[in-house]
Specification:
about 475 residues; alpha/beta; 3 domains; six-stranded mixed beta sheet; 15 helices; flat
């Protein structure tokens, strides 16, 4: 087996920083450490040291660093490893990385700068981390929101694999029944599973695979939660939208119908929590002033669609106005949606934050809805309280967890797509039995179910054919 090269990489983010980290791994690390630090580490741990480096113009200098030494078998990669923590100056970081490579080469070791992900790859080869854990690390590095971190945690904890395992077990059970039916195709009185039942169960599994892909799951599988401002025309939605955004983005006017389309902006609503904030057109049954019936109908349809896909609804009610009833609106939007028959649009209608707007225009306590959060976009009253309530609703309700579908791994997506296609094919074939109520293509159905098992096995642990045989014969009574 060829001796591995010693690899070196900057492990901290690019650019300037207070501290930076340079990492090295491989058989030449001891030599590289002696060249850079003047001594070979003798024990595991962190030590103060001085790195001796040569600048581009040939001048020599030394700078204080912290050196962490880890012996083979006790490091992330399973190899001798060294980490250098120093001042986060880009020029200094580059010089230290080059010095480690040159030091290993001078001692006769093959050394180079590492390729992306190479440290994690060596850790996987050494049995230190699984593929799922490696993918979880990459997902955390690329995370831009809480939802991305949740998705990465699911990879690390094996939640995605467990979902696939459940589908695999149910598919294997169907295959076992089909295999049993193949053995008794010449006996009309022996039917392990009726074609209609098989078609229904295979169809359910196909839908479940599509949901895991995000194809038919939440209509709002996105990286961040969606928060919409809803209410009647002139309820103060646009003014509140601008106040939450911190700048004038939506046009506020006393003329009904000014906001004709949903305006969506990304905004930080709490510490480390971003949301997509949407300002909807006013919800009403009659046309806005100066609007044609077609324009008004399109405005209302779009507003209701956004309402149905929202994670949190901020219902705005101005002084003297009646509250807009959202349950019926969400119900209508749910039935109008054709993209996702499994989506529960009623969830958003139950996750409503009531807001009494324009409270600066009425005496204290005179607002009709005393249970609502009283806000004034002009004075700033209640704005922080509203932000906190929205953040609390999102975190407590777990609305962001539905966004995990937006960060599914490409290999998982391909596996679930292949399983979906195979199960859908099996369901379609089982739905067309012969005139005698028997299967028309039972061998092809069994082949499709085996293909689905293979695809799901790429995410979960694969199922051996002997396991399927065990399921087949476990369903026979004694003496059969």
């Amino acid at each position: 087996m060829a001796v591995r090269e010693t690899i070196v990489a900057v492990a901290s983010p690019p650019g300037r920083g207070v501290r930076a980290l340079v990492r090295a791994s491989g058989p030449g690390v001891r030599a590289a450490a002696k060249s850079l630090l003047g001594a070979v580490p003798t024990r595991r741990g962190v030590e103060k040291a001085r790195a001796r480096i040569t600048t581009m113009d040939g001048a020599s200098c030394a700078c204080p660093v912290l050196a962490m030494w880890m012996e083979a078998g006790a490091s992330f990669t399973g190899e001798d490893s060294l980490e250098i923590s120093c001042v986060g100056a880009p020029a200094l970081i580059e010089l230290i990385a080059v010095a480690l490579v040159d030091g290993a080469r001078a001692a006769g070791f093959a050394a180079r700068l590492a390729r992306p992900g190479e440290f994690a790859f060596r850790a996987h080869l050494a049995g230190r981390i699984s593929v799922d854990e490696a993918e979880s690390m990459a997902a955390r590095i690329a995370a831009t929101s809480d939802a991305d971190i949740i998705a990465a945690d699911e990879l690390a904890s094996g939640t995605t694999g467990m979902r696939a395992t459940e589908l695999l077990a149910r598919t294997a059970e169907l295959l076992a029944l089909v295999e049993a039916g193949i053995d008794f195709t010449d006996q009309d009185d022996v039917v392990a599973i009726a074609p209609a039942v098989l078609s229904a169960r295979a169809g359910e599994l196909a839908v479940a695979c599509a949901q895991l892909r995000g194809e038919q799951a939440s209509a709002h599988a996105r990286a961040v939660a969606l928060v919409v401002l809803a209410g009647a025309p002139n309820a103060g939605k646009s003014t509140l939208f601008n106040a939450l955004l911190g700048r004038a983005r939506s046009i506020a006017s006393v003329l009904a119908g000014t906001t004709r389309d949903a305006i969506v902006e990304r905004v930080c609503i709490g510490t480390g929590l971003e949301v997509d904030l949407a300002d909807l057109a006013g919800l009403d049954a009659i046309g806005g002033e100066g609007l044609s019936a077609t324009i008004h109908r399109d405005m209302q349809r779009h507003a209701r669609a956004m309402l149905a896909s929202a994670d949190v609804i901020v219902r705005c009610t101005a002084p003297g106005m009646a509250r807009v009833e959202l349950v019926e609106l969400a119900h209508d939007a749910m039935h109008a949606a054709t993209h996702d028959p499994t989506h529960d649009a009623m969830h958003a209608a139950t996750n409503v934050v009531d807001v009494a707007t324009m409270v600066d225009l009425v005496p204290s306590g005179a607002h009709a809805n005393s249970a609502a959060i009283a806000v004034s976009a002009h004075t700033g009253q209640g704005i922080d309280l509203l932000r906190n309530e929205i953040a609390a609703r999102i975190r407590r309700d777990g609305a962001m967890r539905r966004a995990r579908l937006s960060t599914i791994l490409p290999r998982h997506d391909a596996a679930f797509r292949a399983a979906h296609d195979a199960l859908a094919d099996a369901a379609a074939r089982a739905a067309s039995p012969t005139s005698r109520g028997r299967y028309a293509d039972i061998e092809i159905i069994a082949s499709a179910l085996r293909s689905a098992l293979d695809a799901l096995g790429e995410v979960s642990a694969p199922m051996h054919p002997d396991d399927v045989l065990g399921l087949v014969f476990s369903r026979f009574c004694i003496g059969k």
